[in-house]
């Protein structure tokens, strides 16, 4: 049995057009703030936070969220996830999100900042029924060290597994170990410092949407590099290499807005952090 | 030396018509950006491609499929087929690999009657599997009683030799330069096999961000000689 540092579970359902929690539970160094409704769409927004302020040696975090039929939710964090040095054992976080038919979850955590000698492993497991829609972003920064040197963390490993009707539909595995890799070199970060990933799974994906996303990113940003491609199931992924968190955030916010407008007729609010 | 080695050589031959010559796996994006432009820069790209992407996907898959065949665990083979396909986020490399796998399977079926090849075909027909060259290659190597490390080595060799051929055409490089690169790459392949034999299973599918991004960008390259 794992001894969890922080546990959180949240079960969401649709009640007459408004998404509400039928169960909220958290324990240890994991917390969720009061739900926020940014507009009258009924979509709920939850801010997750880590009262400890960061992940330490050997920390284990577990989060489980379910969205029942028709539930719509935004999940974000209150601030960047900081992973401090882990001399004995890596820090670990696993998230499981279950989406029933017709539900929508957007999981938009703040950037990850790994400090000198930090080891971190993160696993997101998404289980969707067809007819559900899922949107995810993450941003990896070059970390932080007292000397200002970049990429001084030991390892960052991020795994995303998305199952559609119980079949594996997306597997995304990034593992960066700066001491063993030429981080800024060809094939890796290509001279950039920040890496952003966006994954969207939704039946409404089509080539037109991909073209519009591509044109919008291309028109708005310079000093970055990006790739955009369709998944094996209806959906797409985007990778962005840039030199700041802001460039990636703006790019993803732009894509997020386009999708919200086209698929849900909504204009997303900026996620104010308190 | 394994007996039947000559038979496996046939699958590694660049004349073996799998269609691999139509795919650059993102290399063309680098050539168009003038990042890969000569023998030296291509060698660098090839090193990163093999050591940071291929060993965690196709290479590790060869090892795991070989073990699964040994244990008669076909479900594990089908799981790996799905994993290999869905971890390949860039559409062109995913679909291109699938096409190469499909053709390699068709050719292998006309040369050998290993039952596992027809079972794989059945899975694909039922849309339960996708087809992947590393899986077909390993099935043939296993059927020919070639050892596991050799199966991996020759698979990597065949992948690299078609990439070198493609680079010779696209950069372009001279034929002699191409042969020099292949020759210089032999120790890299040996090293890759040693790494694959040691890899923890859960390192499966690690991708290198830049390589993957270039594979995605290829979709938007206007004038192209490769399909990926």
Automatic annotation (TrEMBL), chain A:
GO terms for molecular function: nickel cation binding. Keywords: Chaperone, Cytoplasm, Nickel insertion. One of its GO terms (cellular component) is cytoplasm. It comes from the Bacteria. It is found in: Cytoplasm. InterPro entries: UreD. Required for maturation of urease via the functional incorporation of the urease nickel metallocenter. UreD, UreF and UreG form a complex that acts as a GTP-hydrolysis-dependent molecular chaperone, activating the urease apoprotein by helping to assemble the nickel containing metallocenter of UreC. The UreE protein probably delivers the nickel. Belongs to the UreD family. This is Urease accessory protein UreD. It comes from Bacillus aerolatus.
UniProtKB/TrEMBL annotation, chain B:
Its main location: cytoplasm. Keywords: Chaperone, Cytoplasm, Nickel insertion. It is found in: Cytoplasm. It comes from Bacillus aerolatus. UreD, UreF and UreG form a complex that acts as a GTP-hydrolysis-dependent molecular chaperone, activating the urease apoprotein by helping to assemble the nickel containing metallocenter of UreC. The UreE protein probably delivers the nickel. One of its GO terms (cellular component) is cytoplasm. This is Urease accessory protein UreF. Coiled coil: none annotated. Transmembrane segments: none annotated. Belongs to the UreF family. Signal peptide: none annotated. It holds the Pfam family UreF. The keyword Flavoprotein does not apply. Required for maturation of urease via the functional incorporation of the urease nickel metallocenter. GO terms for molecular function: nickel cation binding.
């Amino acid at each position: 049995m794992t001894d969890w540092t922080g546990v959180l579970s949240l079960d969401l359902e649709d009640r007459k057009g408004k998404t509400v929690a039928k169960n909220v539970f958290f324990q240890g160094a994991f917390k969720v703030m009061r739900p926020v409704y940014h507009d009258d769409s009924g979509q709920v927004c939850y801010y997750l936070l880590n009262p400890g302020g960061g992940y330490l040696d050997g920390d284990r975090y577990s989060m489980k969220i379910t969205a029942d039929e028709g539930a719509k939710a935004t999940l974000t964090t209150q601030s960047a996830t900081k992973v401090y040095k882990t001399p004995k054992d890596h820090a670990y976080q696993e998230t499981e999100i279950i989406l029933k038919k017709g539900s929508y979850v957007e999981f938009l955590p703040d950037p990850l900042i790994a400090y000198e000698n930090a080891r971190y492993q993160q696993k997101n497991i998404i289980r969707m029924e067809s007819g559900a829609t899922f949107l995810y972003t993450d941003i990896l920064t070059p970390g932080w060290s007292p000397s200002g040197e970049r990429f001084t963390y030991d390892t960052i490993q991020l795994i995303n597994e998305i199952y559609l009707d119980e079949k594996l539909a997306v597997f995304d595995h990034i593992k960066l170990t700066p001491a063993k890799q030429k981080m800024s070199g060809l094939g890796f970060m290509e001279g950039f410092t920040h890496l952003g990933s966006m994954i969207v799974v939704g039946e409404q994906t089509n080539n037109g949407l991909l073209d519009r996303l591509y044109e919008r990113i291309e028109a708005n940003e310079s000093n970055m590099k990006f790739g955009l491609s369709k998944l094996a199931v209806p959906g797409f992924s985007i990778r962005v290499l840039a030199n700041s968190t802001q460039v990636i955030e703006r790019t993803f916010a732009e894509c997020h807005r386009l999708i919200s407008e086209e698929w849900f007729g909504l204009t997303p609010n900026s996620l104010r952090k308190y | 030396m394994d007996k039947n080695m000559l038979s496996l050589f046939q699958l590694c031959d660049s004349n073996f018509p799998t269609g691999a010559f139509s795919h650059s796996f993102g290399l063309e994006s680098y050539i168009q950006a003038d990042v890969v432009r000569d023998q030296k820069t291509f060698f660098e790209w090839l090193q990163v491609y093999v050591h940071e992407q291929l060993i965690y996907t196709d290479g590790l898959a060869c090892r795991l499929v070989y073990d699964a065949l040994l244990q008669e665990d076909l479900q594990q083979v089908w799981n790996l087929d799905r994993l290999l396909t869905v971890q390949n986020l860039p559409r062109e490399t995913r679909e291109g690999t699938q096409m190469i796998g499909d053709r390699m399977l068709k050719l292998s079926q006309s040369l050998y009657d290993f039952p596992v090849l027809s079972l794989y075909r059945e899975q694909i027909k039922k849309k339960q599997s996708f087809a992947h060259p590393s899986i077909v290659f390993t099935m043939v190597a296993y059927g020919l009683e070639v050892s596991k490390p050799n199966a991996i080595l020759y698979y990597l060799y065949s992948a690299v030799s078609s990439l070198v051929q493609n680079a010779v055409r696209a950069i372009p490089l001279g034929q002699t330069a191409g042969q020099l690169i292949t020759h210089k790459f032999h120790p890299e392949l040996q090293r890759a096999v040693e790494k694959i034999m040691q890899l923890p299973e859960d390192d499966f599918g690690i991708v290198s961000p830049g390589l993957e991004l270039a594979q995605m960008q290829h979709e938007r390259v206007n004038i192209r000689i490769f399909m990926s």
